[in-house]
Design brief:
Elements (H helix, E strand, L loop, with lengths): L8 E4 L25 E11 L8 E2 L7 H4 L14 H9 L3 E8 L9 H15 L16 E6 L7 H13 L6 E4 L11 H6 L4 E5 L17 H11 L6 E7 L12 H14 L3 E7 L1 H6 L3 H9 L15 E4 L14 E3 L4 E4 L1 H10 L8 E4 L3
Parallel strand pairs: 2-4, 4-5, 5-6, 6-7, 7-8, 8-9
Antiparallel strand pairs: 1-12, 2-3, 2-13, 9-11, 10-13
Helix pairs in contact: 3-4, 7-9
Length: 371
């Protein structure tokens, strides 16, 4: 849901409507959005956990990568410190900016709990509240991490998340942990960790046989399973579940539906399941090129609060921008849409805009609030 129009304020998929956000204790919505823009930007991806010099690698496509932007000496870790001021400017306006780990081609695995804990220490020092001489975003302190583990390994991620939470427990600001499982329940790579530690939100990718194209098939569509997981199995009973959808027919092999159809599905899900958090789209470039699919979804989905046995809550949207060019490989980024309109503004988006004309968008995922 993150797409922009060239101006001082950029319209994106994290809409900001005059609606509330489906946020219980998942995200902090008290931060002021005085420019009515996106709520959260998950930056994608940290795609290699252990590389040269013992440090990870990040690849933010044309925005920042080791080849074009340079890497810290003795490592393959891209130096993206030119983005620090942009990140801080967005955070000053109340935006949540996190780091997404993994991706479809990510080398993401651990060999022991000790290694996972040590890696959490590294992530804390490089991107979150710690300190290091090789911080890719300089003095900017991100607001959490997102696990998009689609390959590598499935073990010891609980130790990783627990260590991140341990660091965050004494911090002066909240840090968030989210995940992006496949719709098949349980997820092959994330199923174990989702049951073992607390998550603030999950962005379920609805393609495969359980995709949106099979919404009417009770033997395929499984949001009820994720709702049951959220209420009965998840450690955090306030976790929100997002419907992840391809933003165009070329964004995935299956799962794409018309905006009006997805809007109707969102309305029906919102009225039936209190765990529903919004809609996630992948990716921003696909939505932007598809006649602003994000805007269409926002309009089709309407506004309102979740029901299904819960008290009135707010509804939010999250978006991830692609890590590849629109005509390239399958989308690695995801975009979350909510029952609200997403407006994008801030210097990070300004930096991204010129790339749109080249059919590129920076690898950020955004979560927005409706105006």
């Amino acid at each position: 849901m993150v797409f922009f129009a060239r101006s001082k304020a950029f319209l994106t998929k994290s809409f900001v409507l005059a609606a509330v956000l489906l946020q219980s204790k998942a995200f902090d919505n008290t931060r002021s959005d005085n420019d009515d823009t996106i709520n959260a930007f998950p930056i994608a991806f940290l795609n290699v956990f252990f590389s040269t010099g013992g440090l990870p690698e990040i690849n933010l496509a044309n925005t920042c990568n080791p080849t074009d932007s340079g890497a810290f000496s003795g490592t393959s870790l891209a130096n993206c410190q030119f983005l620090a001021a942009d990140i801080q400017a967005c955070q000053a306006k109340g935006k949540i900016i996190t780091l997404s780990l993994g991706g479809a081609t990510g080398a993401a695995s651990f060999t022991s709990a000790a290694q996972a804990q040590a890696f959490a220490d590294t992530i804390w020092n490089l991107f979150l509240g710690g300190s290091s001489s090789t911080r890719p975003f300089g003095a900017a302190v991100l607001d959490g991490i997102d696990l998009d583990i689609e390959g590598g390994g499935s073990t010891y991620f609980d130790a990783f998340v627990t260590q991140i939470r341990s660091h965050a427990s004494g911090a002066s600001k909240p840090y968030y942990v989210t995940a992006a499982p496949q719709c098949v329940y349980p997820d092959a790579y994330l199923g174990t960790v989702l049951n073992a530690v607390a998550f603030d939100a999950v962005y379920v990718q609805y393609n495969n046989y359980c995709g949106l194209q099979n919404y009417g098939n009770v033997n395929a569509w499984d949001f009820s399973l994720w709702d049951t997981w959220a209420k009965n199995t998840a450690i955090n009973k306030n976790v929100k579940v997002y419907i992840g959808a391809p933003a165009s027919s070329s964004a995935a092999g299956s799962g794409y539906v018309a905006a009006s159809t997805l809007g109707s599905i969102a309305q029906a899900t919102r009225s039936s399941y209190s765990s529903f958090g919004g809609i996630m789209l992948w990716d921003a470039s696909q939505a932007y090129a598809n006649s602003r699919y994000d805007v269409q979804i926002k309009s089709a989905m309407g506004t309102g609060a979740g029901s299904g046995g819960s008290t009135t809550t707010n509804t939010s949207a999250v978006i991830k921008l692609p890590t590849t060019d629109i005509s390239g490989l399958p989308s690695g980024g995801r975009t979350m849409i909510s029952q609200e309109v997403l407006l994008v503004s801030g210097s990070i988006m300004e930096r991204a805009l010129p790339a749109i004309s080249k059919q590129f968008l920076p690898p950020l995922r955004l979560r927005l609030r409706s105006p």
